[in-house]
Amino acid sequence: QMCIRDRHQAEQLQKFAALSSRVKPHNEKVYYIIDNIQTAIGNHQQIRFQYYEYTQEKKKILKHDGYYYVVNPYALEWKNDHYYLIGFSLKHQKIAHFRVITLWLI
Question: Which end of the chain is more exposed for a tag (fewer CB within 10 A), N or C?
Answer without folding.
Answer: N
